[in-house]
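User: Could you write out the 3D structure of this protein bound to zinc ion? I've included everything you need below.
Assistant: Certainly. Input first, then the structure.
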Amino acid sequence: MPLEAGLLEILACPACHAPIKEQEAELICTGQDCGLAYPVRDGIPVLLVDEARRPA
Ligand SMILES: [Zn+2]
């Protein structure tokens, strides 16, 4: 299920406030020193640091 158009433009990483990009059913922070990956559940972005996956 694709995210609503324009939604990504208003989303920002809650940890560092960098823009977020959609990638393989996750939302990836574009912050150079952050890079957290947030899950999307039932089409709803879960922008919670506690739910985010740390970059490898
Ligand atoms: Zn971030």
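The chain has one domain: 5-51.
User: Perfect, thank you.
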